[in-house]
Design brief:
Blueprint: H1 2-18, E1 21-23, H2 32-40, E2 43-45, H3 47-54, H4 57-60, H5 67-87, H6 90-110, H7 115-127, H8 133-145, H9 150-160, H10 169-184, H11 188-197, H12 200-210, H13 215-229
Parallel strand pairs: 1-2
Helix pairs in contact: 1-5, 1-9, 2-5, 3-5, 5-6, 5-7, 6-7, 7-8, 9-10, 9-11, 10-11, 11-13
Length: 230
């Protein structure tokens, strides 16, 4: 039951991981690096634009080692998979997941310590309803490869926090530490989103960690919570 509830919460949070704002369709873009930079700012193309870009000849012929462009493709396709899952479109969901898994394997064959891709692999395991040693190994690889990059930490905290109670102990400590680090380094709004996405039992634990921070940091977190709740 605990694992089932955690999975439900984690899947519900994935929309926060890959972006918040839907952009109008732009002109066809060949510069995938520009797409990547926009998506990493938590922007997101609309469904039609994303699908057309993913199906374009340029996207199909990307090198496995063109990390930035491949990352842009992952960032665009993951929300499409999530949307299909929520809508109950099983065949469409399976098609997107197969594509994401194939692209992830391709990238990792070239850059085996890509923290972002390991995080996405973990997300795919969550979408499959799998929480086991293998899935948590993927999350662990993401932490090991990039423990301090803010843009990854923001996404990782949102998806990992609801799973805090069932994560292996070493990972649990990393999740808590990363939550604190976001507040320390000026990302209290991201920490607040993770907090609000977590069940009450985990919120209580997170609050004890906030209380270990200095007064200005505690206030920044409190202000961020109040803003999100208003």
């Amino acid at each position: 039951m605990v694992v089932g509830r955690a999975l439900t919460l984690a899947v519900g949070c994935l929309g926060l991981v890959w972006g918040f704002f839907v952009l109008p369709r732009s002109e066809a873009a060949d510069d995938f690096r520009d797409i990547e930079s926009r998506l990493l700012r938590l922007e997101r193309f609309n469904r039609t634009a994303s699908t057309q870009t993913l199906e374009s000849r340029a996207a199909q012929s990307l090198s496995a080692c063109d990390t930035h462009s491949q990352r842009a493709m992952l960032l665009m396709e993951m929300p499409l998979a999530e949307a299909a899952l929520r809508a109950g479109f099983t065949k469409e969901f399976d098609r997107h997941v197969r594509s994401l898994e194939a692209r992830s394997r391709l990238i990792l064959s070239c850059t085996p310590r890509d923290s972002f891709v390991w995080l996405l692999v973990f997300n795919l395991e969550v979408l499959h309803g799998l929480l086991n040693e293998r899935s948590f190994d993927a999350l662990s690889m993401s932490y090991e490869a990039s423990p301090n990059e803010a843009w990854i930490s923001i996404r990782r905290t949102v998806v990992a926090t609801p799973l805090l109670h069932i994560a292996p102990e070493p990972l649990r400590l990393k999740i808590i530490s990363e939550f604190q680090q976001l507040i320390r380094h000026g990302f209290a709004d991201s920490a607040a989103r993770s907090y609000l996405a977590a069940p009450q039992s985990i919120r209580s634990l997170l609050l004890t960690q906030v209380e270990l921070l200095n007064s200005p940091q505690q206030k920044s977190f409190s202000d961020a919570l109040q803003k999100l709740r208003s």
